[in-house]
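FAQ

Q: What does a record look like?
A: Structure on top, sequence underneath. For example:
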């Protein structure tokens, strides 16, 4: 299993995607899962794309966050989703990108792709 980190800085009222994981003719990838966290909960949407096709869509509040309530020793979340199974062969010449569709309040997204060469 190989890992590639990503980080997406959310922008209000915009969908922001990372640079992605590119599958080449001589080096094809299978995306097994994504490990991710969000910076806070703002009812924004985590999205995954291959080319112009959205293959993942989920609200930010389903995922772990390192955001904290007023007490800096109490994390908001410790039991939400942090591993998203994807199990997709990325077609050669295509890019899988993860991103955040933000409303009026931005949320950042960070984590890594867990993939293998096929």
């Amino acid at each position: 299993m190989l890992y590639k980190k990503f980080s997406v800085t959310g922008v209000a009222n915009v969908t922001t995607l990372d640079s992605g994981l590119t599958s080449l003719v001589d080096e094809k990838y299978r995306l097994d899962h994504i490990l991710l966290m969000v910076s806070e909960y703002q009812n924004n949407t985590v999205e995954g794309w291959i080319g112009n096709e959205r293959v993942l869509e989920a609200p930010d509040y389903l995922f772990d966050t390192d955001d904290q309530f007023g007490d800096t020793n109490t994390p908001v979340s410790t039991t939400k989703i942090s591993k998203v199974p994807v199990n997709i062969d990325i077609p050669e010449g295509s890019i899988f990108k993860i991103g955040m569709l933000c409303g009026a309040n931005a949320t950042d997204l960070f984590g890594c792709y867990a993939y293998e060469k096929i």
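Q: Is there anything notable about this one?
A: The chain has a mean pLDDT of 90.
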